[in-house]
Amino acid sequence: MIHSVVHIAQLSLQYAHHVVLDGLNWQIHRGEHWLIGGKSGSGKSALARALAGLEKTSGIVQLFFDNTSPLPPRALYVSNWYQFTNLEGDRNFYYQQRYNKQQKDDTLTVYAELAHYAKAKNLWLEEVEQYLALFDFADLKNTQLIELSSGEHKKLQLIKALWLKPQLLIIDEPYTGLDKSSRKMLNGYFDKLAAAGVHLVLITNDADLPGCINRFAEIEHGRLKQLDSVLDLSKDAGRVQKTLPLFLKEKPNVSAEVMVHMENIHVRYGDKVVLKDISWTIRAGEKWLLQGPNGSGKSTLLSLINGDHPQAYANHIHLFGQRRGSGESIWDIKERLGIISPEIHWYFDKTAKVWQAVASGFYDSIGLFRQPSYDKQQKVNQLLEFFDLTEYKDRVITTLPLGKQRLVLLARTIIKNPPLLILDEPCQGLDHDQTEHFNTVVDELCGFGKTLIYVGHYETHLPSCLEKKMILEKGEVKTIQDITELVY
Amino acid sequence: MANYFNTLPLREQLNQLSVAEFMDISEFADGVSALKGKKIVIVGCGAQGLNQGLNLRDSGLDVSYALRKEAIEQKRDSWKNATDNHFTVGTYEDLIPTADLVSNLTPDKQHSSVIDAVMPLMKMGATLSYSHGFNIVEEGKQIRKDITVIMIAPKCPGSEVRAEYLRGFGVPTLIAVHPENDPQGKGLAEAKAYCVGTGGHKAGVLRSSFVAEVKSDLMGEQTILCGLLQTGSILSFDKMIEKGIEPGYASKLVQYGVEVITEALKQGGITAMMDRLSNVAKIKAFEISEELKAIMRPLFQKHQDDIMSGDFSRTMMEDWANGDKKLLEWRAATGETAFEKTPAGDVKIREQEYFDHAVFMVSYIKAGVELAFETMVEAGIKPESAYYESLHETPLIANTIARKKLFEMNRVISDTAEYGCYLFDHACKPLLADFMKTVDTDIIGKDFNEGKDMAVDNQELIAVNEAIRTHPVEKVGTVLRTAMTAMKAIKTA
Ligand SMILES: NC(=O)c1ccc[n+]([C@@H]2O[C@H](COP(=O)([O-])OP(=O)(O)OC[C@H]3O[C@@H](n4cnc5c(N)ncnc54)[C@H](OP(=O)(O)O)[C@@H]3O)[C@@H](O)[C@H]2O)c1
Questions:
Q1: Which ligand 1 atom sits nearest the alpha carbon of residue B135?
Q2: Contact criterion met (CB < 8 Å) for A329 and B167
Q3: By Cβ atoms counted within 10 A, which residue in A79, A179, B235, B297 is the most buried?
Q4: Chain A residue at shortest CA distance from B59
Q5: Out of B32, B163, B167, whose CB is closest to A365?
Q6: Does ligand 1 come within 6 angstroms of the Cβ of B89?
Q7: A-contacting residues of B 399-458, CB under 8 Å?
Q8: What domains can be seen in chain B, in order of their start residue?
């Protein structure tokens, strides 16, 4: 037992009546670094959380720390979803609040948050600089938490984890939302940590792993099943091709040839320039890819299009042929576009059920405030069937695996068959297979005259219908070009 | 200036007090068209000003802000709020003459001087809107006869007004037209359009009058409800300390307890709040609340009488004129209370525990809400108006206490509400002194159910349930909450 780091025996866990872990046994020995992967909903995150003592379980979970090591004798779990609170300590934010400027600080700044963390965990604040540099975060020190993009939140989580260097580091979906270069850097850094005596447990189905990972497993019927390599991980059952519901094959009503026209857009917060001199024209039917490193301004640019950003009123933007700020309401705009983003997901009503969430897409509301007509109800049912979600229709969204949650939000977005679809990192947090599944659906959907803006980091993980791309860097347009098939 | 209400003959007083018509969503079918293309100038860019303006603009209306010179020159927060969100900002002289509608969203205390500065600059036939009618009713401000005077009063803090709008919903809202100032008969159409612009029409709109809004708001939010929660918090805390409950626990039980308890109130009225208790505890709570109501009723009636007669606002305005002497004194005293000074302990309290260990608090809130409602209705205010100013407001106020105790509550509410709060608190505490001597930790601090065999008499329980459920505040509440949450309910059904 002396060389064990973790000893787990007969671990069981239930959510309501659903058995997740069922008498699971697991040993982690010195020098082992684990990958836990496998099907969605198999209990990976639950196990990770149980390992960190965050779940109510039965059975034995023992951690043996090395008292001679300089590293803190503790386990740290980094969740797949970030959280932050306002100054009063609650999470009372609303969607797009970060764009409405109010002269009071709603949340801590990055630096204050880190200072807090340093105090709580007994760390030297000076030391954090090197981690900030790793993730190119130094410029964001004085930014309020609420102003960070989702990719930046992920980085902040990782900065804290790497800085703490706990003897046992458990990270759920470490690569979510990270751009290519951060991801590569992170893997290199994991190897360094491993060499310094940190034991890693990564929860992911990604095959692009740090070299130190030397044990692989998945969960089957609530028990751990060890595998030889990452290639042996089970995959979710492939998607059976279904025909698109008829109402989504109708060519959407397009009121203008040019869907979006922006001229010399500038957005700044105080001294911080977020977008600089951007011009962009999107014609009806075009399929665009929008890329750029974390924090390059992609989400801000999109929020100018979807009516959520007050700075749209101060810029030259035409949407669907009408000048922004000429008497249209944001609901007129939202009616004509469908959007999903990590942010919408984050702010989405935690108590919403699947069927109602999809139906709320007819009204662009978060929460359903009206009884949909019979015709609309039928559409919801058909779409749930198309996405293989019928069996989940009465479930609360947040109890589904992340991949399914995204599909629900996609269904919500397209239920009204909008002419313009904006998919901002729709696959963030999804594994390779889920992503492929998702993108096939996007390809099927976009065949009928829809205009698409798609944001995604990995060239290999994109729908095939994309034809043009724009790359942003530090708030400026770096390139605009056609995508030829061979690009990937 | 004479108190407007007091200048009216009794017949007209009763007439205006009783305006309360719950409007159907179909009455808002014209959307914002009555204000489309018109120039809306908001005076003041604080909690209501900024958030109403953001919503109105996002609804396709033309909004700009007129701020006082100092605010612009010193680039105060109000100036930054408006400019950072890319609104046009100007002085009164720049913007007011161009306005078709001027929305006065400055603090109530400043209304008279703001109107004096703004009114001479207003166009002939323009509209003036308010979110609270104090200036018109209590100060009796006379508005030029060509000007239309309307009110759109969201019954929620400004941040909620924005957050609910962005979700595609809204907050419950009162609208009104001042009968003395509707020369062109356009008041109602514009008030409705404004209300649509803020999203209020989706959450339930009550057609009210300036008089009904002011007399109920003064009684509800501005005096009784804040005062009630303040008194209840202090009495509960002090009792627990006296009886040896650990101070950190006591502080937390009160600070967060008011929010947890009133959350049940918000979702399902007094009935839901009482149903969170066990049967034995419920019967006990019912008895206590009856006793409390009997003790406090004269005080509630006195408050209502003073509000109706105008004495309340007169003495408050005297204090304004006196440099807020009383207000500042009371504020300082509140900061010194033991409850305020004892931080919430690092103890875990389960959600149900907040009910089981605070039967007194539940009884007290029930007593206060019902009394406020009953007293208003007896004074001629319609049940719908009285509901918004009693049961509906209580959880909103309780939220502020959960954040930073009484200090936060008194910071967030207006100066006028703060004044009323202290006034009530100071009269209520001595009134309850004898009663409090009978209170022990079984109803505040410890689990009431502990050591009881939980048996109750059928007949007694039935009678108590019946009394709770058929109280008039429950009847009107059921209807209004349905409208407010609309389809929200089916989500969790
Ligand atoms: N808060 C609520 O929950 C609520 C709910 C419903 C209705 N209301 C009503 O809404 C109105 C506004 O309340 P609020 O809470 O939004 O107030 P607030 O947050 O205190 O904002 C007041 C604004 O008025 C400006 N102001 C203050 N004194 C002024 C003066 N003498 N002349 C010109 N401007 C002045 C302030 O800016 P500068 O100091 O920078 O000039 C500030 O922008 C009140 O009638 C209130 O009863 C409030």
A1: 45
A2: no
A3: B235
A4: A329
A5: B167
A6: no
A7: 403-404
A8: 21-207 (3.40.50.720), 212-482 (1.10.1040.10)
Which atom of ligand 1 has the smallest separation from the CA of B76? 40
d(CA A343, CA A349): 12
For this complex, say whether ipTM is above 0.85.
no
- What CA–CA distance (Å, rounded) separates B369 from B387? 9
Give this prediction's pTM: 0.85
Is B426 marked active-site? no
State the sign of the Cα–Cα–Cα–Cα dihedral A335, A337, A338, A341: negative
Of A94, A308, A314, the CB nearest to B86: A314
**B107 within ligand 1 shell (Cβ under 6 A):** yes
State whether B163 and A97 contact (CB < 8 Å).
yes
Structural domains of chain A, with CATH: 1-74+166-234 (3.40.50.300), 90-163 (no CATH), 246-482 (3.40.50.300)
- Mean pLDDT per 10-residue segment, chain B (493 residues): 92 94 92 97 95 96 97 94 94 98 96 97 98 96 98 89 88 95 98 97 93 94 87 95 95 93 93 96 97 96 95 93 92 87 88 95 97 96 93 87 80 82 92 95 94 92 96 92 56 28
Determine which one of B132, B178, B201, B303 is catalytic. B132
Best to test chain A binding among B24, B58, B87 (most A CBs inside 10 Å): B58
Atom 13 in ligand 1: residue holding the nearest Cα: B107
* CB proximity B38 to A under 8 Å: no
